Amino acid sequence: MRVLVTRPREDGEKLADVLGTRGIEVLLEPLLCVEYLEGPGLDLDGVQALVVTSANGLRAFARRDSRRGLPVYAVGDASAQAAAQAGFSRIISAAGDIEALARLICERIDPAKGALLHASGTVVAGDLGGVLAAAGLTYRRQVLYRANQAKSLSAAVVRALRAGVVDGVLFFSPKTATIFVILIRKADLEYGCGEMTAFCLSPAVAETARTLTWLHLLVASRPDQDAMVEAIESHRVLIENGGGRGWRT
User: pTM for the full model?
Assistant: First the structure.
């Protein structure tokens, strides 16, 4: 089984290693390139906790500031793992999406103890700040990186798609799904999606991917990488056993 991974390179390479141990071949096609913004250390006066909605946000913070004493509220396990690798010790993972993170913070954080600093990119999904402010929390957003979009599919991926040797495409965000839709149409390869499976992290991601016609469109049971890997593995077993043709969910 061969799949196309559309994540930024650092995350994509780690996922490729995980899939490789399961005998799944990976073509890396980062549709977003992370550019970390340079600058001085950050103003943490009055901040009681760091909030990250992506591993890239955590990595960007770690590049700009050496302090690791703040507790970290992470949207998911990948962000939490990045925090641990960067040297943070107090890490709380929502193991879900932006809504789950907002609920967790509202349950755990005392507004009187200080502000929350959101280490983010230039573009954010959802309205985390609005939800937290409505709950009486002080929210500060610090833009630390930008994600630049790919302008076209690589020659190697175009060849693979034309040859029909890609079995599935992995989408971890509505943004990357949107970029893929644009680029696959630009390359006049939309027809090939009818022979591939779209693996989507969440219903929101699937809603974007659904603008193309797929052989199968599957949504992970949870919005995290482990669930995506489980979905791919389960689907592979199903196909190898002769089932699932024409099935969508």
Answer: 0.81
Cα 211 to Cα 22: distance, rounded to the nearest angstrom = 30
244 has a pLDDT exceeding 70: no
> Mind spelling out the 3-state secondary structure of 198-249?
EEECCHHHHHHHCCCCCCEEEECCCCCHHHHHHHHHHHHHHHHCCCCCCCCC
132 burial level (CB within 10 Å; 0-12, 13-18, 19+): buried
Q: Convert the pLDDT of each residue in 168-187 to its tens digit.
A: 999 998 999 999 999 999 99
